[in-house]
Amino acid sequence: MMNYSIERKRVWVAGHRGMVGSALVRRLQLENCEVLTVSRSEVDLKDQMAVRAWTAREKPDVVFLAAAKVGGILANDSYPVDFLYDNLMIEANIIEAAFRNGVEKLCFLGSSCIYPKFAEQPIVENALLTGALEPTNEWYAIAKIAGIKLAQSYRKQHGADFISAMPTNLYGPGDNFDLNSSHVMPALIRKAHEAKLRNDKTITVWGTGKPRREFLHVDDCADACVHLMKSYSDFEHVNVGSGEDVTILELTQLVCEVVGFKGEIVHDLSKPDGTPRKLMSADKIRSLGWKPSIDLREGLAATYGWFKANIN
Ligand code: GFB
């Protein structure tokens, strides 16, 4: 439904402990709705019966499907089962339970890695399934593509109002700062911070520094998802991004500047670069009346502040 109101609705944020889910919970505090969450100890989202039972009991009207096994390039490459199986189960269980229990509207969240490795840039939504995926994250990408298709199939077969949003690389408070499993932004924040404290001469960056990535603050992402929930209703997924990208080297320089680390940047070429570039077209979401409001430097500085306050 276009112009869908979430007022006084019961809104389930699945994955509320994650970076995106917690941003959604914060964003929904500004809305006149009732936010539902469930802890991992209460319901394992990979367990179909548990998800069905909880959904039948709690009767959400609206679902944001932000629950997922996520990680950076190395984690994606090292744990293919977790990234494929866990994500397939989580999304299938929640989407099926939502339909079965009469959820009015659902927004499934994916990722820009659904697109072909060498997609034309900036990547428009209909580039999906036009070419081979990036091997380091194809497990995650396949799961997310299946999620889009599942939401579409419920719309096609049953008329369910299920939509999908595909955010670009996200960062912000609540991110994972573990160097082995994190994405690049939290890794660089941590590395620069620790290098500064130790008075190191260098900071090590994985790969060549040449890949380009588009970054969006997670609060902008949450705002975009709420916007889409209220105003978008169609088959095709919607890119959620800033429309701008930087090289990993440029990002590293910016992080060092914000953190105040003045050493030299060195490259660990034993680590993968991944996709050369994945800048998404922001035309569609802009035409739907949304644009980001947090620029990269400002968002990065705020995230560094969060990291220092929560480091322990
Ligand atoms: O953020 P990231 O792990 O994920 O890596 P992807 C982005 C780029 O930063 C890669 C480089 O070229 C990395 O080699 N990089 C440099 C680093 N230094 C570091 C570091 O210390 N840590 C990390 N992690 N990277 C993921 C996908 O791809 O992005 C997921 O694997 C998902 O499926 C997610 O789509 C958004 O952008 O390459």
Write up what this structure looks like.
β4 (105-109), α5 and β5 form a beta-alpha-beta unit. The chain contains 10 helices and 12 strands. It starts with 9 loop residues before the first strand and ends with a helix. The chain is globular, with a radius of gyration of 19 Å. The strands form 4 sheets. A 6-stranded parallel β-sheet has the order 2-1-3-4-5-10, with helices on both faces. The protein has helices at residues 19-28, 48-58, 73-78, 80-100, 138-158, 184-198, 218-231, 248-259, 283-287, 296-310; strands at residues 10-14, 34-36, 62-65, 105-109, 162-167, 169-171, 202-206, 212-213, 215-217, 238-240, 246-247, 264-268. Helix content is 42%, strand content 15%. It is of the alpha/beta class. α6 crosses α8 (248-259). The site of guanosine-5'-diphosphate-beta-L-fucopyranose has 24 residues, from α3, α6 and β7.
Main attributes of the structure:
312 residues, 10 helices, 6-stranded parallel sheet, binds guanosine-5'-diphosphate-beta-L-fucopyranose, alpha/beta, 42% helix, two-stranded parallel ribbon
How is this structure best summarized?
This protein is α/β, with parallel strands linked by helices and 312 residues long. 42% of the residues lie in helices and 15% in strands.
Q: Could you spell the SSE succession in H and E letters?
A: EHEHEHHEHEEHEEEHEEHEHH
Structural class computed from helices and strand pairing:
alpha/beta
How large, in whole angstroms, is the Cα Rg?
Answer: 19 Å
The total strand number stands at 12
Percent strand equals 5-15%
N- and C-termini, Cα separation: 44 Å
